Amino acid sequence: MTVREDAIRRADGSDGIYGVVDKPTYALVIPLDGDRLHLVEQFRYPLGMRRWEFPQGTAPDLAETPPVELAQRELREETGLRASAFTELGMLDVAPGLASQRGHVYLATGLTEGAPERELEEQDMRTAWFSRTEVEKMISTGEISDAQTVAAYTLLLLHERR
C-alpha cells in the first residue's frame, strides 16, 4: 500500500492536492451451496471490531496473478473450501474518491471442504454457513456492514435474475 498526494488542476483552473491510497486489486468470493452462504468473521483493526464478510483479499507479492486464481487462493486460505466452478459477477471500486483499489467478485459453487491455509494475521478468523435469510437480516441490522460484501451480494441477486 502506498499513500500519495498529487498536485492537480481543478476544473475551475485552481491548483489543489489530491490524496490517493494505492492498493492492489483484490478478489472477493461468494461461496454458495444451495441456499447457504459461507462467511468469515475477523477482527478489522481500523474499526476496532470483528465483522462478518465474504472471503476476500489481495496478493501484493503476486500482482500479475489472474483474478480467478486469486479468488481460488482466498477461498482456500480463509475457509478451506475448494470450488469446481467460479463465475465472475462483476467489478467493485472500494472507495474511488480516495483509493485506486478495485475488486473482482466471483461466485464459487461445487464446493468441497478442506483445511484452511490462513496467513498469520488470519489465525483468529472464524467461518460459518448462513442461510440467505440470515445474511439478509445481518445486512439489514448492520451485523454485516462491509460495503464490498453488501455490494457483492447485490451482484449475486442481479446475476440470478438473468
UniProtKB/TrEMBL annotation:
What one GO molecular function would you report for this record?
Answer: hydrolase activity
Q: Keywords in alphabetical order, please.
A: Hydrolase
Q: Which CDD domains match?
A: NUDIX_ADPRase_Ndx2
Hydrolase is among the record's keywords = yes
List residues of the Nudix hydrolase domain.
Answer: 22-152
Highest taxon in the source lineage: Bacteria
* Identification of the protein by name: NUDIX domain-containing protein
Keyword hit for Hydrolase: yes
Gene3D superfamilies, alphabetized: Nucleoside Triphosphate Pyrophosphohydrolase (3.90.79.10)
Q: Which GO terms describe its cellular component?
A: cytosol
Q: Name one Pfam family in it.
A: NUDIX
Please provide the Gene Ontology terms (biological process) for this protein. Answer: nucleoside phosphate metabolic process; ribose phosphate metabolic process
State the organism named in the record.
Amycolatopsis rubida
